Amino acid sequence: MLDMARAATTADAFNAVAEPRRRQILDLLAGGERPVNDLVAQLHLAQPLVSKHLRVLREVGLVGVRDHGRQRLYRLEGRPLKPIHDWVKNYERSWSQRFDRLDVVLEELKENKEEHDGDDT
Amino acid sequence: MAMTRSRMAVVTLPTDTQILITRDFEAPRNLVYKAYTTPELIKRWWGGDRGEVTLAEVDLRVGGRWRYVMTANGGFEVGFHGEYREVVPNERIVSTEIFEGAPEAEAVVEHTFTEKNGRTTLTMLMQLPSRAARDTIIDSGMEGGLQEALDHLEQVALSLR
Hints:
The complex is a heterodimer.
Chain A: H1 2-7, H2 11-17, H3 20-29, E1 34-35, H4 36-43, H5 47-59, E2 63-68, E3 71-76, H6 82-120
Antiparallel strand pairs in A: 1-3, 2-3
Chain B: E1 10-12, E2 18-25, H1 29-37, H2 39-45, E3 51-58, E4 65-72, E5 77-88, E6 92-99, E7 106-116, E8 119-127, H3 131-140, H4 145-159
């Protein structure tokens, strides 16, 4: 099953899914079809930038589009890449947890430094 | 305050064989460097929420070796080791990294510490030997999916008792 997903993974698609903003777009589209204005509002990004990301995602086949009245609706086609998408998010969470602990260590080092600086004067 | 979105680690994949991790810290870079390279401090953060670091060996000089071992929450051990190739104190470390669960895939990791207005940005650019090595890491779950899966499995097993 994973082999099939891997076979469908082109280099381009792998990189496309690894860009944080594009992952956000894929996450939003995972909730259903949306027009570009909707994505712009959710992401707080300029429309040309959202359109550029959508173009990259369409080029590698991760996002599809259809006309609906006067709107164009974008949809997720990214099922084969889900394992990689999930892995990147998981890896990001793992490092975030580490760095949250590193923050605590740094606060202590900063306090100790201030104490020592105080001793010197 | 410490938990704002901007403090999240950001992971991107700049090319087929690279993993880039970036994170900002509210501290000068000499302290970030110290926390990053001092064994007793590494033991306090490197395990994250996943386990306890039982070993942190650091021989911080070109050609020197490092090894970290963690006992994960599921009870199994996870080890990483490598060798330092470049050491510029408070600025830059280039080291090799081998996950002992997949020792054929040696990565080269370039750490950069940049300070601006008292804040430090740490970037870690991991260069993998091949796309196959990258796929091995993703398939094995490295330290992510696999361990979490096993942790969940353990919780499920305990709930069945």
